[in-house]
Every structure is written in C-alpha cells, then in structure tokens.
Amino acid sequence: MGNVAVPKTVPVDNNERLPQLIRCCLPKTTNVAKHSNNGRPNNSLRFTTQLTSTTYHRNEPRLNRLSNMVCDADPIAYINAIVRLFALVRAFAMAALCLIPGLLPTTVIKAQTVLTSDRIDGTPVIDRLDASDLATGQVHRFWFRVSDNAIGQAWYVPVIVMKGAKPGHRLLLTAGIHGDELNGIDVIHRLVGKIDLARLSGTIVAVPGLNTPGLLHHTRAFTPGDGADGANLNRLMPGDPASNDRAVRYAGRLWSQVLRPNADTAIDLHTQSRGTAYPMYVFADSARARAIGELIGPDMIKIDPGVAGSIETEMLKSGVPAITLELERPEMFDRRVIGRAVDGIQRVMVDLKMLPGGSAPPRKVTPYIGDTLARVGTSRGGFATLLVDLGDSVAKGQEVATIADPFGRIVERLTAPEAGRVSTIATDPLRDPGDTVMRILYTAHSTSSDTPPSP
Ligand SMILES: [Zn+2]
C-alpha cells in the first residue's frame, strides 16, 4: 500500500476535517492521531503507520514500520484520494481476473500445484508443488508454507524450480535439513546461477534450507521455540502432515507436498555437525546410488543399508535413487568443496541426460569406497591431538591421536582398530570420557552398528 501524497502542509485541528475520500482509502488499522509536543497539542495531524506490500497471512495485512507522513486537507488531496480509489478498483479487477482459468500468468498453476493468495516480498506462497505445472524455460521461485507455529505465524521454506526448455528427468536437490549444515545451500545457489535453461532438459527442484527453525537457531535439530523438542528431521521422513507432533507434521508436509512428488533422483546435501568434520563424502544404499556417488567424485563413499527416516533412505524405499552428499564442515560456506559439489552434480545431470554430453567438468577424484565405520573414542577426558588428517590411510594398530590432561601430560594414546581411511574427525579438541575422536571407513562386507551422527 502506498502513502497519501503530500503536496503541502495545512494544519488541521481535528479528525473531522480530514477529507472523507482519504478516510475511505485508509486501512482501518491506520492510526490518525494528534502528536503532542511536550504535553501540548500539536495542530498538525500525522499518519504514523505505513503498510508494506508484503502479505504474510491469508490476506491479513501486517503493519510494518512507522513513518511520519503529514496529511493535508486541501483540494489536491481530494484528487490524490480519487487516484488511489482508481488504483484500488484496478487491483480488485486484476485479482478477479486471476480467478479465471486461462487468464493466469504462465508461472501460475494449472493443476496440482496449489498457489495461495499470499506473497512475501513479491514471491508467491505455495501450499503444494507440482513442477510439471510450471512453464518451461524459466526459473520459478516460491515460498512453501510448511506449517504454522504457536504464535499464529508460519514456517516457510524457499523452493526454486528450474524448468528446462525440453522435457526430461526431475532432479531434487535439498539442503539444510540440519540447520547448522550450510555448504549445500550455496551449492544450490551456485548451480541455479550456472545452469543454462536453454540447454537444460527436465527440471531441477531445489530447496535451499529445509529446517527453517534450525537455520534461525544455528542448530542441527528442529528447534521451533521454547521447549523445543530437538527432533532430527532427517530421521522423521516421510512424516505425517496430520501428526500431533510438530516435527513429524513439518516433515510430513515437506515430504508429501514438495519433495516426493517432484523427484526422479534425489541428492540431499549435508555437512558434519558442530565440532566435527567430514571429507567430501557420500552415503549410498543401492547400486544406482553408488553410481551417482561415483559421478559426484567425492573423497569417499560409504555403502550401507541407509538410515530409516532420512530423505536418502525413504526416497529409495519409494523407488527414487538418492544419495546423501556430505560437504565437510558445518557453519561455513567453503568455496572449494562447494565448487566440487557443483561440478559433480553437473556430471550426474549429464548422466541423466539433463545436460548435453561433455558439458560438465571431468571428475578429478576417484573415491575410496567402504562399507563399515570403526570408531576411535577416548576413555579419559582431556585435549585430543590428532596425528592423522581427514582422508589419510591408516594401518590397524597405528597411533592416530593422543589425549592430554590440562598440564599437557599425555594420559591416553589412541590407535586405529582397523586399516582404512580417516572419514570423520573431531575439530573440537576438548573431549569428555567416552567421546568420539575420529572414525575410520573400511571394507568389511558387513553392516556397522556404529551409526555416525550424520546424515
Ligand atoms: Zn546433516
């Protein structure tokens, strides 16, 4: 909503002298009040409220910020009010046209996608996405309204749809289901800026930030407010939109309204958690997932049965090849590993015939592949000094870390229980008794019971 124009200032002494047309155009929530000057009346009336064009909730305007607008009571103000009335009538007419099928703009929905009447900073808010509805050769951006919170507002996630000029595969990219794992968000941002829509066959559906409360609180867990349950959304898929548990409900809405209906292949982007680090690392639980992982070109691939409730595993259960791609450390944008991931995803897209052959950079790394993790943990508390780096090969029995007491005296020497590659390290040296210091990936042709904290 705009402001009343200000041709000149004419003091008035009460609300009754405001032009009636101006009153008609004002929202009911607009304050019209006399300002006092050291307790004495001020003869100039001032409007102190300004509405933005942002609509947050089902057509309920939100008062945004205060400004001081001087209102005038002369004939020019009447003319301005009439102009505003015409604008209002025009807006209603446009809204009515949007309700008539066939007159919708090309980016608006014809079938399964549910577009609400809301917009945030001009970006449409959706209740469900079906990318097949959208116009080709365009990038579409939406806010998906996942669920409401306890104070009558909503949690939204950003959704980007790149619709290629030609039909083809649907690649789902997700990031930030753990709110402190950020590299994947920039992978999506960079990929969207890099892909030429004219050369793209098929559709990229990307959600750069699944866990809105976690991102706001810089937490791995879903932390929607005081008394937060600390739920791990990547153990709750496919969720249940009708659940009494807010985290299960949130997961269910993501899964049923956006993720599963728009995926032929899925890549879920993560990093290690706070205080720890991975190399560039893929979790894969099928032959096709392993092939996708090898195209990505990470340092390591762990072949395992997956983790129930994760996007990767639940996608696979529903027939969609999927991997979890771990991008090293949390709480940062690491340009080097982000660039590797952007290149690797383009290789997957070439394989899926979404991009022309030869259009992706060649793979530079041949990944080490294992199926089991061996944990190296402390029995004493203290400061851990690592003697090996991420990705290093270690021999069984090799000393890989020491634990020192506060005086610097070594109180424990830790050795590798198996030969393999260092796949996780603690970046925080302060260790409690029983803490993990590192993990070693190796091949045992069996399933490990040592489940890592990610995906
Ligand atoms: Zn994660």
Q: Main attributes?
A:
five-stranded antiparallel β-sheet, 8 helices, 455 residues, OB fold (Dihydrolipoamide Acetyltransferase, E2P), 21% helix, eleven-stranded mixed β-sheet, 3 domains, binds zinc ion, disordered N terminus, globular, Aminopeptidase, alpha+beta, disordered C terminus
Structure in a nutshell:
The chain is of the alpha+beta class. The protein has helices spanning 20-25, 75-97, 183-194, 212-217, 246-259, 287-296, 311-317, 335-351, and strands spanning 32-37, 40-57, 60-70, 114-120, 123-128, 138-148, 154-163, 166-175, 201-208, 265-270, 276-277, 280-284, 300-303, 322-327, 368-370, 372-377, 382-386, 393-394, 399-404, 410-415, 420-426, 430-431, 436-442. It folds into 3 domains: 15-97, no CATH class; 114-368, Aminopeptidase, CATH 3.40.630.10; 371-442, Beta Barrel (OB fold (Dihydrolipoamide Acetyltransferase, E2P)), CATH 2.40.50.
Bound small molecules, by name, code or SMILES, are: zinc ion
Q: Helical amount among residues, as a percent range? A: 10-25%
> Average pLDDT value?
81
Poorly predicted sequence stretches spanning 5 or more consecutive residues: 1-73, 93-111, 447-455
CATH class call of the largest domain:
Alpha Beta
The domain tally reads 3
Rg, please? 28 Å
Oligomer: single chain
The major beta sheet can be summarized as:
11 strands, mixed
